[in-house]
Amino acid sequence: MRWTSKESLMRGQGQTGPGCRPVFVFSGQGSQWTGMGRALLERSTVGALVLKACDVQVRRHLGWSLLEALTAEDSRLGDIEVSCPAIVSMELALAAVWRSWGVEPAAVVGHSIGEVAAAHVAGVLTLEDAMRVICLQGRTIGKLRGQGAMALVGLPWARALEALPEFAGQVWRVIHASPEWTVLAARPEVLEQVLVALRRRGVPARRVDSEVAAHCPQVEPLREGLRGELQGLRPRMERLPIISTVTGGELAGRRFDADYWVRNLAEPVLFREAVDTLLDEGHGVFLEVSPHPLVKHSLESCLARTGCEGTLLSSMRRGKEPSQELLGTLRSLSALGPRDRREQTSLAHELEEPHLAHVA
Length: 360
Hints:
Blueprint: E1 23-26, H1 38-43, H2 45-62, H3 66-71, H4 80-100, E2 107-110, H5 114-121, H6 127-141, E3 149-153, E4 171-176, E5 182-186, H7 188-200, E6 205-208, H8 223-229, E7 242-243, H9 258-266, H10 271-280, E8 285-288, H11 296-306, E9 311-314, H12 322-336, H13 341-351, H14 354-357
Parallel strand pairs: 1-2, 1-8, 2-7, 8-9
Antiparallel strand pairs: 3-5, 3-6, 4-5
Helix pairs in contact: 2-4, 2-6, 4-5, 4-6, 5-6, 8-9, 10-11, 12-13
């Protein structure tokens, strides 16, 4: 059974200020899983339309079928060239589903490649330009396959390299995930030595499932080539606030040009700084728009360090029927939005309609 659009379902959201309207958080590499696009293609008219439009662009730039990659049991989602456009396409489709149900973001933020989805949802990039960016980024970073690896370590950003003096110049900070966690990158053989050293010192650390290391000096030789391929992008004025994880602050839409997307791939991800910006602006509801939640722990850490209360919600989970997560999150959002009991009762009744309660 198809998921039916309910444009007025979350009408109360727009009346309660930035603390109740959600921030759409688009996560990066690692959220992909086999068959993740089937439910949207089979049951969501809105989601299927977006995925089919993305498929046209992937065929144009890369020459393979996105729809096949999203549904096949033996898809190539482990390949970086495939996972980059696949993840962003899923995020764009999920954002379209949420908006068709009346869930409008107060702001958007993207983690690494998730910034491409955020830029489209904010109105900065057309769908065609967004897919061009992610397809070319994926193809570019794929040239580094096997040369780098990444690990999440339980050290603050400022201390992450100071704690590893024996690896000076061989390891880089690539993602400022939260006040307590940093992602490091190095050549695979060096990173294994780093992990051993950290564990001996009692520092929690684990490999990140990625065949490349982005956001580090290894990308430097590829910058000019990618910049040339991305010339002609036409970023537009943003329709809602977009917080950059390249700069850590709010950025005007016109700044998201070819140079910006090169920086997005080559420079560290300042996710903690971006979340702090959102918290300073009074946002407290974060909806992760991705095939699987990846940044929940980072968000929790940022909230805890600042003493802020917040609500963290997700859209899908790996290997789970999407309807359960979507509907549960929709109920949570509806409870945050309405101002009075009569509105709450009305929304609760609509949520129990057969076309929403039985989407499995």
